[in-house]
Design brief:
The chain has 310 residues and is α+β, with helices and mostly antiparallel strands. Helix content is 50%, strand content 13%. A hairpin with a 4-residue loop joins β2 (43-47) and β3 (52-57).
Length: 310
């Protein structure tokens, strides 16, 4: 069975769309026809009559201590970026963008920029990220620093341990991996900017005019530019990533970072992405339990065999 057709996915979609029906009544909006766009860590739902897309924080929200704070930060960054002229999907402007708490779920609302399913090529991803960094280098000075390397890792690991997906030894091994990965970036970084935080092509949407716009800003924060470059340079493949980094360097006049220079950031990024999957494995095991378990076993093995450590 495909994860999207699993019992968990069906249940999540029903709960999320029911919450949106309640929210629409609260906001005084006309009855809409929810269209599920994505049902993974969050439920993304188009509300066509309102011209909005709703992010319902489902599996990601469950693993966070204060999911409303993360969505509030996302909306704030969206407003900062939009005001600065960066290419971003703007938060809703015709109604309160939120976040809204509805039946135990947190929701943010965004302008619907269209439904083009095309993926950006490396040069387009690089151009979009270079534009983001250029326009937002000094923005969001009051935002926290490197939440992607701290709470985005610690919160889902703690959640998974509380719910039995991780035992004490596994949590200890992952905590050690986190400590070592943080030590690996200490003193590194060439420039602090407002990071997108998850700057890969899957978070770029092309609007009706053909402009690539950044979405999914939950992990945005201040931090060294190398974090975003590590994400750009490792997705969706190593080859595409290197092409993206080369294009970024040409556009910005920065040298192309080597794999050795990005290695400490990539180690931390790998832990961050897998920690999120470990948290999601608790509530959406059909999609995330398998890969999460493989990563946990790999880290535990490295702990037992130090010669295999990065």
């Amino acid at each position: 069975m495909e994860p999207e057709a699993s019992a968990t996915a069906v249940r999540t979609a029903r709960r999320g769309t029911a919450a949106l029906t309640t929210l629409w009544q609260r906001l005084g909006l006309d009855v809409d026809e929810p269209q599920v766009l994505s049902n993974r860590g969050s439920l993304m739902v188009r509300m066509p009559r309102a011209g909005l897309v709703a992010r319902v924080s489902t599996h990601t929200g469950a693993q966070r201590r204060d999911p409303g704070w993360w969505l509030a930060t996302e909306v704030a960054v969206g407003r900062i970026a939009h005001a600065a002229g960066a290419a971003v999907v703007p938060p809703a402007q015709v109604v309160d963008a939120g976040p809204h708490e509805v039946d135990g779920l947190w929701v943010s609302l965004w302008t619907d920029v269209g439904s083009d399913d095309t993926r950006a090529i490396p040069a387009e991803s690089a151009a979009a990220l270079a534009d983001w960094h250029r326009k937002l280098v000094d923005a969001g000075r009051d935002l926290p620093v490197l939440t992607v390397a701290h709470q985005v890792i610690t919160e889902p690991l703690s959640y998974a341990a509380r719910h039995g997906f991780l035992d004490a030894a596994e949590l200890a091994a992952l905590t050690r991996e986190h400590e070592e990965a943080l030590a690996g970036i200490e003193g590194l970084g060439t420039q602090e900017v407002l990071l997108h935080g998850d700057a890969h092509r899957g978070n770029l949407l092309r609007d009706g005019a053909g402009l690539w716009r950044w979405s999914d800003l939950e992990e945005s924060c201040r931090g060294p530019i190398e974090w975003d470059l590590a994400v750009l340079g490792s997705t969706p493949t190593v080859e595409a990533g290197r092409a993206g980094l080369t294009a970024y360097a040409i556009l910005t006049g920065r040298p192309v970072p080597s794999q050795e220079e990005l290695a400490p950031w990539l180690r931390l990024r790998a832990l961050e992405g897998n920690a999120w999957a470990i948290g999601c494995a608790v509530t959406f095991p059909e999609r995330y339990a398998g890969p999460a378990r493989r990563y946990v076993d790999e880290v535990v093995e490295r702990t037992l065999n130090p010669r295999r450590r990065p």
